TrEMBL record:
This is 3-dehydroshikimate dehydratase. Mg(2+) binds at H422, H492, E568. Pathway: Aromatic compound metabolism; 3,4-dihydroxybenzoate biosynthesis. Its EC number is 4.2.1.118. Belongs to the bacterial two-domain DSD family. Its cofactor is a divalent metal cation. It comes from Streptomyces liliifuscus. Pfam families: AP_endonuc_2 (PF01261), Glyoxalase (PF00903), Glyoxalase_5 (PF14696). It comes from the Bacteria. Gene3D superfamilies: 2,3-Dihydroxybiphenyl 1,2-Dioxygenase, domain 1 (3.10.180.10), Divalent-metal-dependent TIM barrel enzymes (3.20.20.150). Residues 281-392, 419-560 form the VOC domain.
Length: 598
């Protein structure tokens, strides 16, 4: 189906919004009146710009407080409408949105509303314009889609139809099934938005918290299914009022927006992009660093050994059990400092995974490799992390490990770390919802609930995405405000162990510096849990944190931070799905005390 986006959903001047929408690949736009009023371009110039960009103007909006008013007031409204119809002629827009009235002058009189909307439609018809009447969830007398439709039906004019907006319908808890009773050709327009489920005033909710379909808690796809079954043939158009998107760069937001519509169309069976290929493990995590010393000291103390070196690049492979870390001292490191730059995802079908990612607008990365290297398909996640779809020593598939030559090394410590438990990637502040949708739709990972964690200097939100057996876990996090501070951009690699006390003690005895945890924390732990003899003392001695729920216990401790990166040791009971969120405020406070090493 055709895709469209309301200019209100994107930041910037009208021309920037239009460019972003076109570049992302939208077919059309809804022009929001305020964007036009604030633009130095004439309507004719806007029309030409849209034509140049290959965008249709699918809707002009909104007209407000038109219907069910005293005759004199309605006369003034018609005069106002005529002005706007002339403007729309210049713009080349043929559908106008009329929101249900919020005016105190409006009467609770459906017959009057129908009569006046019919008059409006007669006027519009003369200009070749169609009027789409939409129930605002906070409309004075008309606030549900079925009520708006009854009025449109009663008005009975070919130039009058209804506009459905998923936010208004789902925020009010209306049953969208009734949409199927509206003739498809009378649904003039469909606006789509999701929103997080919140208990708040519906107007505030709508104007500040809407998000793209799949990013919130509404069943937008279910609603679209009803609209399709009604026979709707117009565009799928995003209308998202959101405080974050208003500030974020329009280009990436538009791509994010279109991705949400691609996924939505797939989920209602309108399109069939390449199926998701769910990763089956984390093959490696790649750190770039200008100076390997501080990282290699930590890795050695954790029991890792440098086992191999890349044949043609300054990249070392450090390994312990199935945990593989790459330390890259190439040019990117000198530019960006120490950070987690890439993740290798073990994929049953690397090429298929890349095709899915590309179909969902993930930037495909050029293969920077020597001719003899294993072919590696890679895409960029919204935060810039490179995701490699790869195979590790699996029959029939080229293994990325073949690009490395073994180097002499001491055997890695046995029984220490056995694999990567999870990766925690801090997202740019404006890309949190986008990141969750990306990992869910592109990689086929399931998104867990988002949790808020208190930081001494703000609030951190975190949401994990995982595969079914937990062999891939990525915790996406974001600070409350833009932060230049390294702490606000921290990333970490959590390493799984079966015996955290032994692993943490070995780390400390080998010269590792565990993140110190305040004594108050352990007093509280003693109050909360009856731990086995000696357990609390060992935790206190080694800075180990403890969390428990019905599914078992989670024990964890941290290293110091290098650049943006630190490590965590994790001992997770088999059924436990958490990440120690309860302990995160203590960890964050401790990290603020201890600034990064370099
Ligand atoms: O918040 C509003 O006023 C508003 C305006 C136009 C719409 O289509 C809408 O859904 C809400
Ligand atoms: Mg709307």
């Amino acid at each position: 189906m055709r895709t469209s986006i309301a200019t209100v959903s994107l930041s910037g001047a009208l021309t920037e919004k239009l460019t972003a929408a076109a570049r992302a690949g939208f077919d059309g736009v809804e022009i929001f009146e305020n964007d036009l009023l604030a633009s130095p371009l004439t309507p004719e110039e806007v029309r030409a710009r849209c034509a140049d960009l290959g965008l249709s103007i699918d809707l002009y909006q909104p007209m407000r407080d038109i219907e069910a008013v005293p005759a004199e007031e309605f006369g003034r409204n018609l005069r106002r409408a005529e002005h706007k119809f002339r403007l729309m002629e210049r713009l080349g827009a043929d559908t106008v949105l009329v929101c249900s009235s919020v005016s105190p002058l409006a009467e609770d009189d459906d017959a009057l509303a129908a009569f006046q909307l019919r008059r409006l439609a007669e006027l519009a018809e003369g200009f070749g314009i169609r009027v789409a009447y939409e129930a605002l969830a906070w409309g004075r007398h008309v606030s549900t889609y079925d009520h708006a439709w009854r009025i449109v039906e009663a008005a009975d004019h070919p130039a009058l139809g209804t506009c459905l907006d998923s936010f208004h319908i789902l925020a009010r808890g209306s049953d969208p099934k009734g949409i199927e009773d509206i003739p498809g050709e009378k649904i003039f327009f469909l606006q789509l938005a999701d929103a997080p489920l919140m208990a708040m005033d519906v107007l505030q909710w709508s104007r500040h918290y809407r998000c793209f379909p799949g990013q919130g808690g509404f069943d937008v796809a279910g609603l679209v299914g009803h609209v399709m079954r009604a026979g709707y043939e117009g565009p799928l158009s995003l209308e998202v009022f959101n405080d974050v998107f208003r500030q974020a760069e329009a280009g990436p937001t538009a791509v994010d927006a279109l991705r949400s519509l691609l996924v939505l169309q797939e989920s209602v069976g309108l399109t069939e992009p390449p199926a998701p290929v769910v990763p089956t493990g984390i093959a490696f995590a790649e750190l770039v660093t200008p100076d390997v010393e501080p990282l290699s000291e930590i890795l050695e103390a954790l029991g890792f050994a440098r086992t191999a070196r890349h044949r043609s690049k300054p990249v070392d492979l450090w390994q312990q059990g199935e945990a593989r870390l790459l330390l890259n001292t190439g040019p990117a490191a000198r530019r960006d400092g120490t950070q987690l730059a890439a993740v290798g995802l073990e994929s049953p079908d690397p090429a298929g995974a890349a095709r899915r990612a590309e179909a969902l607008l993930a930037p495909v990365l050029p293969r920077r490799r020597a001719p003899e290297d294993a072919p590696l398909d890679a895409v960029a996640a919204p935060d810039g992390t490179e995701l490699f779809f790869c195979a590790t020593d699996r029959p029939g598939l080229p293994s990325w490990t073949g690009d490395f030559e073994p180097v002499a090394h001491k055997p890695p410590v046995a029984g220490g770390v056995h694999r990567i438990d999870h990766l925690a990637l801090t997202q740019p502040w404006h890309q949190f919802d986008e990141a969750a949708l990306f990992h869910h739709s592109v990689l086929g990972l399931g998104a867990q609930e988002s949790v808020d964690v208190a930081d001494p200097y703000g609030l951190l939100r975190s949401r994990a995405v995982t595969n079914a057996d937990g062999s891939v876990r990525i915790a996406l996090g974001v600070g409350a405000a833009p932060s230049a501070d390294e702490g606000g951009r921290a990333q970490h690699i959590a390493l799984a162990t079966d015996d955290i006390v032994t692993a943490a003690r070995r780390f400390r005895d080998a010269g590792g510096r565990p993140l110190p945890i305040p004594a108050n924390y352990y007093d509280d732990l003693a109050a909360k849990y009856e731990l086995a003899d000696g357990e609390l003392e060992a935790y206190r001695e080694l800075g180990i944190l403890y969390d428990r729920d019905a599914d078992g216990a989670f024990r964890h401790c941290y290293t110091e931070t290098v650049g943006r990166v630190f490590f965590e040791l994790v001992q997770r009971d088999a059924g436990h799905r958490g990440y120690g969120a309860q302990n995160a405020p203590v960890r964050l406070a401790a990290q603020h005390v201890r600034r990064p090493v370099r």
